[in-house]
Design goal:
Mean pLDDT: 85
Structural class: alpha+beta
CATH topology: Immunoglobulin-like
Keywords: Signal
Number of domains: 1
Radius of gyration: 19 Å
Strand order of the largest sheet: 2-1-4-5-6-7-3
Low-confidence stretches: 12-23
Distance between the termini: 61 Å
CATH class: Mainly Beta
Strand content: 25-35%
Helix content: 25-40%
Protein name: Lipoprotein
Order of helices and strands: HEEHEEEEEH
Number of helices: 3
Amino acid sequence: MRKLRPLFSLIFLCLLLSACTQKSEPLTKVTIQLTEATGKYGAEKVVSDDSTLSKIEHALHNVKWEKGVQPSMARKEDVFMKVTYEKREAAYMIWFNPNGSATLLGDTNDESYGTLEDAVSFKEIILLN
């Protein structure tokens, strides 16, 4: 039994490391709708190229989320974005702020209210697609 202890420790360590290094689900598609001056959503724009999806995914990973918050916003969002992963979807309402940050409201408890401090490049990606 003593000889098996190092083997079990090694197996446990490998399992722990593999669990900690697993990536989240990759994005497969992003649908973007800009809010028009009338307050209605514009036409859907679908993003599916890997380079742009990677940039959007990177920005979403940098959002600082607060769980369980139900804020009310003074104006309609600038963008409605639906993100499709391999096994799930998430929807976000996005407000771009004059100071270069962005405020996001998500449709889950874990991602209900968030801020992205440096959203200038994220805004460019969203508006150019």
